[in-house]
Amino acid sequence: MLQSCILLLFSASIAFGYVTFDGKEVPTLPDPATTVIVANVSQLYMAIRNQQAGQTILISPGIYDVTAFEPLRISVNNLSIRGSAEDPSDVVLTGKGFEYLGDEEMFQLYASATTFANLTLSECRGNCVKLQSMGNNNCLLHNVRFYNIGERMIKAPNPGNIYSRAWEIRYCHFENTKIPAVNRPDDIAGGNYIAGMDLMYCDSFQIHDNVFMNIKGATGDGRGAVFTWNNSTNMDTYRNTFIGNDKAICYWATVTEGTIKNNMIVAGANLGARIDNSIGIKLFNNTSFSADSGNGAFTFSGSSGCEIRNNIISGGISVTGGTYPDTANNIILTRNQKTVAARWFGDLSKGDLHMQSDTCGPVDKGMVLPSVTDDWDGRARDSLPDIGADEFSNNPPIDLAEFANLPKNDIFLCKATPNPFNPATVMRYSVPAAMAGLPVRVHVLSLDGKHIRTLRDGHAGAGSFSLVWDARNDAGTPVSTGVYVVTVTVGETSKTAKVTYTK
């Protein structure tokens, strides 16, 4: 029986890197060769102003208000902008705010081979990272957190029909905790002009192992968390997690060729996937499900040569115009089939889209597809593949759906998973925007209140986070089996959860 990605990364090593909100370990980047170290906003400004090809601008932990010199223009090739720590919440760049009433862009790219890594970009009204000149090729976004961006977290416009090619966007976290006002100025869609990424004239982008949370418009009609269109080609979106977005994945007008596979979609107010006026799009082994409604459908309009195979889809498939896609071997869940889904996914309230039993209907019922060799966890599929994003294994529950409707003025601590655990467990918590910048401490105590381990000690970033505890104390010594208390404290507010370590 296959083990889950989480359990494998725990058992593979004792020293853990940064772990994403959905439990994936982020690969560590190679050490940079030529660095410019900055520790305050003035130094950051001068480093951007004096940028040179081949440099890494290495940003020390802290909060950097860049509003005085936005937009930050990247004009030389092969420049990296990188936080010095593995945890992206240690380095936070802030703009004028989600609710700002004017135009704002944080970064503008006029170059290629740019890397953004290990940092948070937050509170920007307009476009956060914009491909200003287009022709911006071979760029990497690695372990970047985008938080409360009012229009586009990544924007590729269409100046002169110039393609940007060969990007990789991986292990990033795209999250909003705010919703635009229906009457906000300069919003052409009545508060719905908002998306995770908006990509025009892009080619050969790899968008994988990211988290997209709560990207919503004023009336539930926000653009896609992944929104690619206007003659983009060869766009691949895979192994991502989507939670509570109005629309998860949109390929529009006209995207030619691309694969959408192994994504887990906890549907929000609208669609799981929308394909409009596009050619040759393949949707393979995705799971789109909502415990609360019939949302999550896949819709097609005016498209041709598309294939929809091995998917679990809540809300069905709708086709208008174009050529009817190949829809072999999908499982369509209606509102009345929640009891069936409960047997497949376990506790519906948790939104865990891993299958819980080898007796589930999707197990061993999939078609063998040459382009689908692994699953959402990155684990190899066997000769009798399952339908959906997960190849059945003894996956621990991952409480993700609870984060689709977070409290606005209080911290939130989810139950640890797995629990009981051995050798490690993941704690997930959220911090509201109003508490950003306050001192944060996450620590483990014994039942009698003795300090065991500090997992985080610094200043709180806003958004949703995860931490791993490997059943060791601050000295690196394994603890005894038993029950322990995890405490998250932000300012004067604390939340606790119990975890049980077994052998």
Give an overview in words.
The protein has 503 residues and is mostly beta strands. A hairpin with a 4-residue loop joins strand 35 (439-446) and strand 36. 51% of the residues are buried. Residues 111-263 form the Right handed beta helix domain. Residues 440-490 form the FlgD/Vpr Ig-like domain. Pfam families: Beta_helix, FlgD_ig.
Short description:
It contains 3 helices and 39 strands.
Descriptive terms for the model:
3 helices; Pectate Lyase C-like; mainly beta; Immunoglobulin-like; 20-stranded parallel beta sheet; 5% helix; 503 residues; 2 domains; disordered N terminus; ten-stranded parallel beta sheet; globular
- Please give the domain count: 2
Which fold name is given in CATH as the topology of the largest domain?
Answer: Pectate Lyase C-like
Average pLDDT taken over every residue: 89
Sheet with the most strands?
Answer: 20 strands, parallel
Cα end-to-end separation: 20 Å
In CATH terms, what is the architecture of the largest domain?
3 Solenoid
Structural class: mainly beta
CATH class of the largest domain: Mainly Beta
Strand content: 35-45%
Radius of gyration, in Å, reads 22 Å
Number of helices: 3
What's the count of strands?
39
Which range best describes the helical content: under 10%, 10-25%, 25-40%, 40-55%, 55-70% or over 70%?
under 10%
- What is the global morphology? globular
